[in-house]
Amino acid sequence: MTSNRFFYVIALTALLATLFATCKKEVAVKEVSLNKETLMLSVGDKETLTVTILPENAANKAVTFESSDPAVAAILSSGLVTALSQGTAIVKAKTNDGNKIAECIVIVSSMKLTTAAAKNITDKTATLGGTIIKVGEPEYFERGIVYSRWTNPTTANTKRIIAGTGTGNFDIDVSGLSSFTTYYVRAYAINSDVAVYGTAYGNEVSFTTPFVPGPGEGDIIFVQGETFTREGYKITLSDFYIGKYEVTEKQWVDVMGSNPSYNKKGDNYPVENVSWNSIVGTSGASMVINGITYYANGFIYKLNQKTGRKYRLPTEAEWEYAARGGNKSNNYTCSGSNNIGDVAWYYSNSSDGKKEVGTKAPNELGIYDMSGNVWEWCSDWYGSYEKKDQTNPTGPTTGSGRVLRGGSWNSNAEYCRVSIRGNSSPNSSNYILGFRLVLSL
User: Fold this and answer.
1) Which of 41, 167, 177, 206 could be joined to 83 by an S-S link, Cβ 3.0–4.6 Å?
2) Residue 20's pLDDT is what?
């Protein structure tokens, strides 16, 4: 009897599973898109288009490709487009039922050109150019370069015409660039055999002008984001830039007009006696950066208005990762050494007060004073760490104190270790509280 009951249960379970599978509704494809809407090629060029199908759990994600003119642009089932002759074709990606279609216009020119890598780059100038490989028929009547802060620049963006015709290299010196800015560049040429605007473009290249600090700014250090372990959990960070030094008295005066420091010692000493609220602001116009609202009466908002950049306070995770030496870390107890006296001004060697920034040894990344001199504000509310792996954590959503890190000239050695945390009310200000900046990419 028990055996019969067992087989009955098995049979019933199988029947219910079959009924459930039969009744389960397949998820239909709602959207098909291609990674490009326009593709500009020269005869003989090849490029692969990729397809995105939504939702991700759609039942049938197969697509077929077709070209409106295979003699101009042929496309394989893999999405590989081959430019065969001058003209224009539309390639399509279609679902098997034909209900969803994505299109890309392929423009094939008999003219071929490439864009050269930027050279002679300064914070305000660069040499840009390209190469005409094939002039096409009829020959082009204008050539040059276009550039922009956004991808895929066209002649509607900044354009520089370069005299000359025929094949070969061409270049031009451009000026009026902004420091620490990424520009995207394409060579172009115009003749009547190109279908869109009579213009053909070369490949896109990019370059970034070097950082040159202005009033209120200090030197910065690039920190390559990676994963580090904190209390047994993995913390993954994106790339960022952080101040090479703590913000100085001069930087604060350049932006705010007066010096709040309790001990006013000179331009290159860290500013102190600054509260979290005086840095971030409390009223007026505002901007949100990395989840923190910066207000018009605060230092950072004023600095960003002055420079056109996006400065902010570091998150606690960013501060700790940078202090530990980032991807070059030697796992020192202090920032840059196990011997605190090499890298930090603290109670045993500076009982008379704060010292000029950068006068002790830097850490593995070239950052100074992340142990000692002045405590440094972070953007996070203080609280227990979340017990899980995280990416770019920003701390608790509420709290009563903001995180402080690094110790100060008035701290014992144990408080200058990179693992030590402190906190204080956002309104707090005294002679051992300062900060350093992060510059968002």
Assistant:
1) 41
2) 47
